Amino acid sequence: MPFQFKDFHKSSRDLFKKEYDFKNELKVISKSNGVKIESGASADFVSHNKANWTNGTLGDIEIEANSSGVVKGKICQKSIVDGVNLTVNGSAAGALGLEATYAKDTLAATAKATHNSGKGSTSLMACATIGMGDITAGGQVDLDGSGALTNYSAAVQYTTKDLAADIMTEKFEVLYAHTHYRVSSSMQIGSFAIVKGGSKNCLGLGTDYSIGAGLNVKAKADSKGAVAIALTHTLAEPKMKVGVSAQYNALAGDRFTAEKSGISVSFGDF
Q: How far is residue 61's CA from residue 63's CA, in Å, rounded to a whole number?
């Protein structure tokens, strides 16, 4: 079964983005009687609470609120008909979205409509992918409320058990290429290339290595001089995960001073 268009180069995206949080945050996560609750706070004193559970009638439910006034939620009803999932989401700010996904055999597709009453804007999106053995190809179009085309993309990806490589383009003006290779159960490597023309071009390399139980190291660098590292420590007693990340500019005069950094601590059923 092919993946949805949004999941093109997902393994590479996770390699280059996950754990690179660059923020200071404390979270406590617990699960009880089918309900998962996450509470946390960041260094700028913004706290958040998130709850997830499944209702036999409505489906999967998620509600989130934080102290800065953001309140949002979503409901996902899976398999309303064979291969079709339906998700409704909204926020107190006036945003409302409706998304339908389909996945069966060799075809995956998504249709989404979003309306923001506060901004008076509406957007539409449709995408589809087709799987042919190790090859998946697809495209996406974005429209405004009047039906005018605002963006379009196309992509193709080759996927095996350990390797994923793809090429994607936006409006046939910007080209993205990604590779991800699982060297072993403890090590992954990957690369990306962005071709926009001139100084906007960028190449990058990254790795993810599990040193052993409880310690994981990620590192990445790109042709613009950005070098970043992320360490994740997982403790069994107390049950805690600590993430430390920092990014440096190797081309700057003071290359050993971090441009941005963060420490995140999670307790409980993370």
A: 7
Decide: 39 and 48 in contact? Cβ < 8 Å: yes
Closest CA to 182 of 193, 172, 190, 174: 190
Compute CA distances 257 → 115, 231, 243, 251, 253, whole Å. Answer: 43, 18, 19, 12, 9
The span from the CA of 159 to the CA of 124, in Å, is 29
Say which CATH architecture domain 5-268 belongs to. Answer: Beta Barrel (2.40)
Tokens of 197: 């023309």
Residue 45 reports pLDDT greater than 90: no
Residue with tokens 């309303």: 80
Which residue matches tokens 């409302």? 96
- Other beta carbons within 10 angstroms of residue 57's beta carbon come to 5
End-to-end Cα distance, the chain: 29
| Mean pLDDT across 25-49 | 95
Is the pLDDT at 1 greater than 80? The verdict is: no
Tell me whether the omega of the peptide bond preceding residue 2 falls within 30 degrees of 0, making it cis. Answer: no
- The mean pLDDT of 214-222, rounded to a whole number, is 97
Closest CA to 188 of 168, 210, 172: 210
